[in-house]
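To: structure desk
From: M.T.
Subject: fold request, one chain
Message: Could you run this one when you get a chance? Sequence is below, nothing fancy, just the single chain.
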Amino acid sequence: MLRLITEQDFKEFWPVFQSIVAAQETYAFDPEMRFEDGYSLWCVSPIKTFVFEGEDGSILGSYYIKANAMGPSNHICNCGYMVSENARGQGLARKMCEHSQNIALELGFEAMQFNSVVSTNEVAVKLWQKMGFEIIGTIPKAYRHKRLGYVDSYVMHKPLAR
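Reply: Done. Structure tokens follow.
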């Protein structure tokens, strides 16, 4: 079930968040980030943040939605998604992305853009493409991957249908 996040939810999700960030394979967040900074970044700054709650009440994933830019570009949104390692491969990212597109339309956004999809994150790239996102740009050596060194990142975009 997808629902709005609470601070307690983020506390429960923090180990997942922290491990994803520390892996330095998908998110350009400080691997030494403290809880307070992570909470602010993921839960306070965005317009809305959701959790995917399992049947047992555990938090299996989370996503945020925010405007990608301000002023004349605030009609395009940006989202970030995280899924716990033990829940991967179950379609949660797809469900969260579908949900986020509906929320984006409710909030008046006309398009969704991902600013930095790490090129080596092939599962995410393929999923986003299946969901109608196009790679509209490649940023050479934009990401310092912990194991692979410098790798490209993609800018991906999708118009949202009303």
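Reply (cont.): The chain has four helices and seven strands. Let me know if you need anything else for the meeting.
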